[in-house]
Specification:
globular, binds fe (ii) ion, Jelly Rolls, 366 residues
Length: 366
Amino acid sequence: MHTLDLPIVDLDDLLSDDAARNDKAAATLKHGYGELGLTAVAGHGLDQDRLERFYGDFRQFVSLQPEAKTALNRPDIWYQRGWTPPNTEQAVVAGGQPDFKECYFAAPLPLDPLARSYHPELFAENLWPEVDDFSTDYLHIGRRMHEVGEALLGGCERALGLDEGELTRFLPGAAHVSRALSYLPMSAEQAGTDILWGEEHTDFNLLTVLAGGRFYAPSGEMAPRPDDHSGLYLRTPATAEHPRGRMVRGVAPKGMMLSQVGQQLEILTAGVLQATPHVIKAPTAPGWTRASMAHFLHAHAMKTLAPLPAFWSEQAAKAYGPPVLAGTYAMKTLVDIALAPASTLDKLGYRHYDRLAGIREVEDAT
Ligand SMILES: [Fe+2]
């Protein structure tokens, strides 16, 4: 097994007035996002005690009986708020095997009401369980992760020689969403097999920020990682020697966040920044669980996804075209990963045929 120390971007450097520190952070971003699609993030300023308190509250929610969670189980809004039950989400490559996780979605920032009128599911109001400090801590952590993501995206502009705002202009009012994840314990028969906590996928948004998860022993106590097998693995780019790339375990120093490039950012940069396939592996011992918190920065639903002029070429147009609205892209992806029903795609385009058929069915009154 190969282990990779992830490149570390220090936010203090990235936001510093000192040009040398700034350049250093931008160069690390370009290397990390360009070659691995991933970096560790230092200097993020998120209080780790508060994060652990939230994980405690989230685990309390997860431990409730399914009946107690039913009101927060909302397939009608594609699970984009509230509880995603186990055995729901499936990676595209998974062949029908859902991920071993249950999750909670909430939006930590104000959302664009105009976009909500077109995409009521993506822009739905938050739902909250009646668990201690769940909502206040959730929103606090989500907002901090968003600020980190915004700074990183600004850093990408500098790293790629873009004008200020060329990437961050996609952010205001978008359907940014945070997600608390609880990975399920493997049974004695499942542990040590090929079953994964999270199947291989690339994120479909612009940029993902991960707050840093925690493992819990079968006793329920928080505990250090039980083995070197479990955690995040990423697929390195293909080379002549390794045409399928290599699966390497990505390791970040304790207490740091992680950041990952999503498909939308790869499209905008025509692949200069890479959305890297990754998997989450469970420990080889049964009974272990893991809690983690992610924040997904999205392009605004009404913005067009296509290579930016700085990255446009005939080849880029072939690889990443035709242009598509970010909201449409999200609808298609949520169908692909089994969160939205296939009928969602019937909403795309016009309704003239239905309208005409409806008119022709009306009985003539005369
Ligand atoms: Fe992911």
